[in-house]
């Protein structure tokens, strides 16, 4: 029979069982009291494991922390201790410090193993995190130890911890408020993004070589990218860059300080001169932070961001988007996108080509980019390639990218060709039930506010919105009426759409306007020649056309808005009456705030109707007994009276049926 040999873990547990908490306290006191008991150091280190009982781990941790903190400024660095020469081997003090340094590195690694172990006690993990951050504070000769902090973030990002783990919350809530920790966090995230991107490229090559057809398991890189995104979103923005701004620092003698001699000069210290530590001005701190912030975010956007699960709207009634590819990462976009400055205009123009397939960006990135990233970048135009490629995708991705792209266009002089064509393509009935529809409608109203828009473009948007109003909920119809109201008021040249009986009235005028906008005058004037033969009852507007210039909107009319006057929802029928005013007189009219209607729903409409006061309440009664179900005025041209021949045949059939029924009854009575 083979004898079962005890494992190393069982032997280690038996060895630990020999010691009690009082024994560990004694070992710790001996280690702190004299160097003669330095051999207690490896023994105490053996208790710093995830499998050790929390009380024993905590007792050993406190003793070791008290031992290492005073010695850290005197210990050599890890690189020096690993490559010391033969001349220094004879120095016993150097050998001792080198040995202590190696034990300190083992101690840090053991603490990292505990802090990323989800099975460990949460209170113990918090103490371990605080201990690591104390080492980060003074571990580099009294300065910030960026290497230990990078190892901490590296282990967190590459671990199996979930995003909602308590460790990520503790790190963000307790330490991200310090400006120097934020600074080194951006530096670490830049390095981590590069390493994750390199691993992703190697994984892609490995998948291409795999021809077995077996489904690959989901890569842990997706979880790492999610944790990077989560931690980036938890870093608070820079408070300000004025001289009165004050920043909290984890290490006051850290990266944002400089030495100053007695004469007030900064630089190298001369003999006989005393130096003072001076904190950099808030403006210089903000400049450094912006640079690292920009590098961290650009490195993050280089990654192939994993697909977020887009929730379906209205109880799975709308399948919002099914996209499996976007352009490459941020720098991959630069390979297929070129930028050039327009001379004499100070604008930046983007010329895009066909994107290469890759993964869709994170939902959080596109939604919050214009609020938490763009205002703090050193050069926001560096994001134009990423945003324009996202905007070209269409669907919900374009809706989320529109906010950031609008900020670049209005505040940073970005010029994007075919912007309005892409915006026109986003107008679909499903957009009126989207999660971010409120912000989209407000941006749509702002984009159409310029009086320099050509008439055909304003008419195309106006007509497309009116056509969509026939297929959207009442809340969407209210938004459309508000948008059409503002368009008619801002652009008097399209007021002909309000009432236009046939296409011959404005054919000549619109032909010249649209042909001026198009480079090819013959193609632009060809639809006008066909309009003479078009019947007045046929709408020349082509709602399937994606180019606003070719929709023939100026030859159409807003007959769809007239149907809204008879809408079943009273607020819609009341609100549409505002379009009956003469909107060309700007002094007597005002623009409608789209914000008041952009987030409407059935619940808001019902609530407004409940709170509304009415003078006359409609009652469900008739002054005279109705003689028919529908009045003849509702069906003009229809007659519901039966003809004479049909009526006689019907009467004959009914009489025969009655005779047949009476005959059956008589038979039943006779048999009974």
UniProtKB/TrEMBL annotation:
It is a multi-pass membrane protein. Residues 398-576 form the CCAAT-binding factor domain. Its main location: nucleus. Residues 499-508, 654-672 have a biased composition (Basic and acidic residues). Keywords: Membrane, Transmembrane, Transmembrane helix. One of its GO terms (cellular component) is Noc4p-Nop14p complex. One of its GO terms (biological process) is ribosome biogenesis. It is found in: Nucleus membrane. This is CCAAT-binding factor domain-containing protein. It comes from Solanum verrucosum. Residues 523-535 have a biased composition (Polar residues). Pfam families: CBF (PF03914). InterPro entries: ARM-type_fold, CCAAT-binding_factor, Noc4. Residues 499-549, 651-672 are annotated as: Disordered.
